[in-house]
Amino acid sequence: MGFTEASTIQRSLIEWAEEAGWEYLRGDELPRDEHDVIVEGWAREALLALNTELADDPESAELVLHDLNQVVLDAHNGLVAANERLTVMLRGDHSFPTIDGEHVPRRLIDFENLDNNRFTVADEVTIAGAGRPRRFDVVYYVNGFPLVVVETKTPVKQQVSWVNAARDIYGTYEEEYPNFFATNVFNVATEGLELRMAPIRAVPDPASEIWAPWGSTEDDPKVITGPARVERAARLLLRPETILPMLKDLAMFRHARDASEVDLKFLPRYPQFEAALGIHQKVLDGRPGGLIWHHQGSGKTELMAFAAARLLRDPAVTEVFGGAPTVIVIADRKDLVRQTAEMFETAGMPRMSVPKNRRELFALLRSGEPGVVITTVHKFAEAGHLNDRSNIVVLVDEAHRSQEGKFGEAWRAAVPNAKFFGATGTAIQDKDRSTFKLFGDPDDPDFVMSRYTPEQSIADGFTKPVIVEGRSVGFSLDKDALDEAFDELASDEALDEDEKVYLSGKASHIETILSNPERVAAVCADIVDHFLAYVAPLGQKAQVVAYNQRLVIAYARAIEDELVRRGAIMPDGQPREVGVVMHVADSKDTPKEYRQYLLTPEQEEALKRRFKKVDDPMSFVVVTAKWMTGFNAPIEGVLYLDKPAKDANLFQTITRPNRPWKNPITGQRKDYGRVVDYIGLAKAIGNAIAGPEARGGEDDKVNVTDASKLAGKFVTDLTRLLHLFVGIDTTDSSFDSLAEAHERIPEDSAGRSEFVETYVALQTVWEFLDPHPMLTPFKQQYYWLAKVYESIRPKDVSRAFLWARLGAKTTELIHGHMNEVVVKSMASRTVTLDAAGLALVKRIAEQLRLPGNPPEGPEHPDVYQQVLDSIEARLHRRLAEGESPVYKSLAERIEKLRAKAIENVEDSLAFLEEALRIAQDVVAADRAVEAGDEDALERLADPKRGVLTQIVEENTPPGLHQIVPEIVDRIDAIVHEVAYTGWTSSDAGDKAVRRELRAVLKNYGLPIKGDLFDRIYQYVRENY
Hints:
Elements: H1 6-19, E1 23-26, H2 40-50, H3 58-73, H4 79-91, E2 95-97, E3 103-105, E4 119-127, E5 134-142, E6 145-152, H5 162-176, E7 186-190, E8 195-198, E9 212-213, H6 226-237, H7 240-250, E10 252-254, E11 264-266, H8 270-285, E12 289-294, H9 300-313, H10 315-321, E13 326-331, H11 334-344, E14 352-353, H12 358-367, E15 371-376, E16 392-396, H13 399-402, H14 405-414, E17 419-424, H15 435-439, E18 450-452, H16 454-460, E19 466-470, H17 479-492, H18 497-507, H19 510-514, H20 517-535, E20 541-545, H21 549-565, E21 577-581, H22 592-595, H23 601-612, E22 618-623, E23 636-641, H24 647-654, E24 673-677, H25 682-690, H26 708-723, H27 735-744, H28 750-769, H29 779-792, H30 803-806, H31 808-814, E25 831-833, H32 840-847, H33 863-880, H34 885-898, H35 905-931, H36 934-941, H37 943-954, H38 964-978, H39 987-1003, H40 1011-1023
Parallel strand pairs: 1-4, 6-7, 12-17, 12-18, 13-15, 13-16, 14-15, 16-17, 19-24, 20-22, 20-23, 21-22, 23-24
Antiparallel strand pairs: 2-3, 4-5, 5-6, 7-8, 8-9, 10-11, 19-25
């Protein structure tokens, strides 16, 4: 029997459902007519069981079922509206009429005691009506209401993915039978390799963050992948303990504000779901609060709304505290208050208040009325003591900022017995402030109740990697002439020494350098160069961060002049515009040139809306503090940074462009966000991303790597692809050439799969890097491969593969319009913040905390030398205690490393990786000395041969152990003879090394296949 969806993933879903407590029935065994949506007999049983007064009032019970069916039928007039009405009904929030004309709430599902419900999973469920019958693969029923529909596809067809399943739901089933989805909580699409969930009317897209993966924040995205991730997701998502909280508390609806919008249903992602339920449980348990540390851009403001809804809708919270709670949601800006308030404008949600001023806020909190109060932190100024109630829950968005100074103290003093929960993407830990101690529960590991890391967020597709491109803005300065002129000025003005120090200090401020008109002009010209070459073709927008208000205006004018000079226009011919957003005091003392940028909240909101529209000419916005943090505009593709920043503020700033975005006109998706750094913050960026630690146990990893590696990856992938077509003339564009290419990658072959997967990766890198000088020599070969890909591209596959129509920049490449633009960059100050590892910086920082004091002071400004000095300081103590080959070997390794030139970030990574290995070996040597382990010391003295010796010894017969050193010598020599830099990326190099290793083993009568060869090869690949 072949692999089909029914025999693979569909069968597994049924098995997992039964293990979770669902009763399984075949679709044709359900007690329903094929035209029915609700299994009416089960719904009636639940209605009578949960509303005992209806046992003697069957006519009123029938009225309830009649009203439910009427709304189900009304889904043909608008599915989202019908779904919202039925959500309210299923929650028990709707009052149904009785036969006597009264209106009484009715319970249809028991959310408190789940055992009182009927949970049924059915497969091959048919729905019939005016059109052709349709069959749903798997449906999950609760008390006869279909709450979840799962569409499955086969996992073994290259052309089929979860997207095809999602398309069937969105484009066929919901269109033809919207009534079946009227009671729906969410839909699921899977082919067994990936599983995604989404609310009704979610447009399917391969890179969609709406069709979201499910999982657990406890899982490592690098370890749990593919079918294992699907099983994990299904077991966590498709169970009553997840589906019913979604229905009862967390499903929300946003209504269209004008004709350009549509009604939307939205649901939490799994980190939001976990955190919302975690907050709710902590409140029930009487805990003081907790810290939610989720990556920037992963939906913390939405989390506040989900958590508040959960708290206010649960009668158990009221019972615990003897009264309904008040939930205060604190943001640090008015626009975040508006954004949060929109989340609550949905049917069936608790009462919400947004006080206009301090007086209204104080009155609300003194009154003790239950509900949601959404406000800014600033309104708590001078509040004093307002309420002693313990059933107040404070949810603080951007907790790292709201904790600071008088405001953080003010809201804690106002409601001292409240529970305080803080959500942040950039926790702070320094000598003056600790987000962990202020919000963290001591019972939580490292004071964090919920952690969602950058690598998890990027792996899930909720945020995008950020490329940080370094720039060198150099200038020459004749210091001797400057000193002479300054002394002359001091003499002429009769300045004393203190006055000279003060004046020189003011003059040497960074603003002096940044405000140099020539520098402003040069930076802004480079900004426009970069924008027009890399960002504008994708339809994205740009944010520029300048040092202060004066420079914001200077940059805005310089960018405007550059755009005019270059004739930069939108695709429809409109000239591109530059906006300015900064805090301007409404005061008579405010300079006139600043006052023209004084915006009301409404004007600022209008500017933000313009910036977010792809067809609006507002292409740049220049800021200095506003919009640097908390600003959410997915269309922002690049942030140009020319202002010093550090730690949390720096991290928040550089993650502005990390939101996923799809160009609604071309369909092009954002693969990366960009930050262009003109201020030299590469090292600070690494520190900011590494983040603080609460107790030294934080395990987040950070990868800092040269963006030019992307160009290297392009060449590597291109070589892999061309290897499939060796002997074919890629300059030949004839049919014969194309036919020959097809013969090399026949349909359903491993070669075809390799070509498709590698080409998609190749196209992504080209899209991002073009125009890059390194790509120019490969243009013709890339274009030939593009033609081959387009000719074999399956016509109905996921839109992730639609290169020609969605590759806006590549299309321009084919037309030959983007080859003359050259952007200056400084590779040694370019870093990538990606999900591939996010591994090195924090690991190095942790491993290098060796006993002893690292050198300090200005005489050790070089971080690389500091690393070596800190290791060497410990080595010298050991060497002073006596001669030891292992410590001499380690010292020699340090000297070799010290002599290495570091010219770019790739070099620095290699340097730090080797330094990390040496540091680990120093610690291992100390332990071996203390334990008297001579074998370990011998291995450490020559680590490569030492490990090889151990591998060979463990896998050779006892009689051969005496020749192990000889075998190891031969392997070591052979590899050095055969291997070369980059051999692991070369098919020929890899084969040569494998061949020679097998020859060595064969010569000594050892097996050339199996564990011995595999371990030796793996070690050689990683270390030679």
